[in-house]
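Model the whole thing, not chain by chain.
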Amino acid sequence: MAEKLYGMIAEFRKPEALAEAVKEASRAGYTRLDAFSPFPLRDVAHLLGARTSAIPWIAVVAGLAGAVVQYGSQYWMNVIDYPINVGGRPLHSWPTFIPATLIVAILWAGVATLLGLLIILRLPRLHHPIFAVHGFERASEDRFFLCILSEDPLFDEEGTRRFLETLAPQIVREVPA
Amino acid sequence: MASDVQALTSPVAEVPLSPRFGWAWWVALVISGVLVLLLGYTLMSVVLVGVGVWGVNIPFVWGFDLINYAWWIGIANGASLFAASLVLRQHDLRTAVNRFAEGVAFFAVICAGIFPIFHLGRPWLFYWVFPYPATFQVWPQFRSTLTWDFWAISTHAIVTSLLWYVGLIPDLATLRDRARRKTVKKIYGLFALGWRGSVYQWAYHQRAYRLVAILVLPLILIMQSTVAFEFAVTLVPDWHETRQPLHFVATGLAQGLSIVLLVAVMLRWGLRLERYIDDRDVDLLGKLVLASALVSGYLYIDEIASAFLADPITRQSTLTRMTGDYAGFYWAAIAYSVVIPQLFWLKVARQSVLAGVFVGFSIGVGVWLDRFSIIIGGLQTDYLPSIWRDYTPTIPEWGLFLGTVGLFAALVLLFIRFLPVVSMFETRHDEHLEKS
């Protein structure tokens, strides 16, 4: 067939079957895999080697940056650029700078984490080849899918289809690119 | 062929996707819509005429606007705090109530935000509290609590709305996939941002969601304390107390929990979600409400005790709150927010819809009366006897308050109509964990 494929997808009814299939596929040497499920599956993500450690780093770096920017701007504005004597209180009244510093640190950390999440996941995205698969809409409901991507070095239309069929799926389909 | 898992969450998904929703929803939406119009009218009157339409005057420069602000922010913070701690503890209850607890927090923050902006007198200049390089070369005064409040409200609104939305994305994808009408599919699809449910996506999503939930906890405590600091840093004798933040955090938590309970029992009953918000969830929620009411009770005792230990002027002004013109508000606050919730010692009461609505409502009223008692009653006997007078809210002030209640109700009604009120993916996940 001349048409280029995005991958080959197999549908399962149980999360355990999906986990088993992912194990089998990596045992068979496939490396470019993706799995789809209607709820988080920590063990499957672990098998596929999903590493999420970037998320807390985003939060820490953004939070610290927010705190520094907020404290620094309060200091610069109220002490250096526009000093006002209010009842003889010190210009650098650091305790009063703390609440906004903490709040803005949380603001930066929270917004950066959630927006960073979307950037890491490459969302929003209007279309993806996987949505063209008939029956894929149940991935958000009660079905589990394993997709072997065509960019996998071992990918070969016939061979991969035969391999997926040995995993006892409901059905195996091609994903057009 | 419908499987177990599908049967599990389809009733939740059916609610937003059903073409009809019954007349009761329409009646409720029309009533709250009228109140929203009233809100628009009273806000316009403040803009066109000025704050003179309110009954505020020295010493009561903060009348209804700050009472209602402190009240709404209490609901927002209490509900957020509750939702965030459920996520962190991975408690079973989170599946049932987390989604709308976050929603309640977000809607309450919107209502709360209206008041501080409009009580400025010239609300169109509210952006002056933001440090931007103005041509007149002045900067905001960061030693003032009012600037802290600006950051607190905007941060709460941004972070809770983002957290709520990010939590909704997978469920919006489910709605996209289940929608039968093409336009409906497109709308949900647009908001689902192209979520595919890949396990990589799930792993990142869950990590980020939990992390931001952790961040919400300190945010809420700082924010509720900031509201209290607005009173505590003034020199008014009854307000200038280090116990204020604790009082606001504790009563605010009771209030947030009570509104979550109120919405929970009404949703359960109205949308027939007994399966998702089960008897155990409501029972647990009732116990939490009871516990938080007991903490409020402890703080009222602390208030009385610290009044007797304070200097004579502080003692007098606190005693004025308890015995003066507004004493009714003080004692009614205790009755509504501490005494009535004691009903929840009975299991029958914790599980009854009527008692849930009654107690939830009662704590809401009680905390409102408490804020009234602090903000109005606390100023009755200030240092200057020449300004000892009374405060009566005017009709535009009542309109403003009722208007925000209507806005809140309208937002809740739209939320239950168009979005899944219970997290569907969490429900599937829980069921999966239970089976394995």
